[in-house]
Specification:
Length: about 190
């Protein structure tokens, strides 16, 4: 927000920076990762209470949708035991493999080949989807390579729609602009 960065990619809400425009790129959800054969993997549909019954390993607060995860537990007055945090899903998976807790990670971080010793359990019904956004400064001249990167990262964000979003002043106007555009789910 101080003009030092041309672009950022974020999942956590950064609404308190008025000079940033947030462009939605894609939706994603979480999964619970457990070692194969774990009791949670045998449940037909897990609950927050089920998950909270085990030590939890997840992302650090303020990173990769962590606040949304915390809010889900708070809403149900559940106090999970988060024993370890990391900024990287591979570190979280290592902790799960070591038996230090059950992992809560972005579903796209699970690789069925590399992580075949782990069982992913869908958690969208527990935490809902998150939206990853590209953040741009309103006052910035956008260079060609930034448009190129955004087009590769989120093809629905055309140069025209980016300009239209940058011209809008209110966050709710930007949200309305993107309402009719379906976001991919990863």
């Amino acid at each position: 927000s101080h003009g030092l960065v041309d672009m950022a990619i974020a999942t956590e809400t950064i609404d308190h920076y008025e000079n940033l425009v947030l462009l939605p790129c894609y939706e994603w959800n979480r999964c619970i990762l457990v070692p194969n054969g774990h009791p949670l993997a045998a449940l037909e549909k897990i609950s927050l209470h089920d998950v909270a019954g085990y030590p939890i390993v997840t992302y650090v607060f303020g990173f990769t949708g962590r606040s949304q995860l915390d809010k889900a537990f708070e809403k149900h007055s559940i106090h999970p035991q988060v024993v370890l945090t990391a900024v990287d899903a591979d570190v979280i998976k290592t902790y799960v493999r070591l038996g230090l807790g059950v992992g809560i990670v972005a579903r796209m971080a699970y690789d069925p080949v590399a992580d075949s010793d782990l069982t992913p359990i869908d958690a969208e019904h527990l935490f809902g989807r998150s939206v990853t956004k590209v953040c741009l400064r309103r006052d910035m001249f956008i260079r060609g390579f930034i448009y190129d990167f955004i087009r590769l990262f989120a093809p629905h964000l055309t140069q025209d729609i980016i300009h239209e979003a940058l011209a809008l002043r209110e966050r709710h106007e930007i949200e309305e602009l993107f309402k009719p555009i379906p976001l991919p789910v990863r």
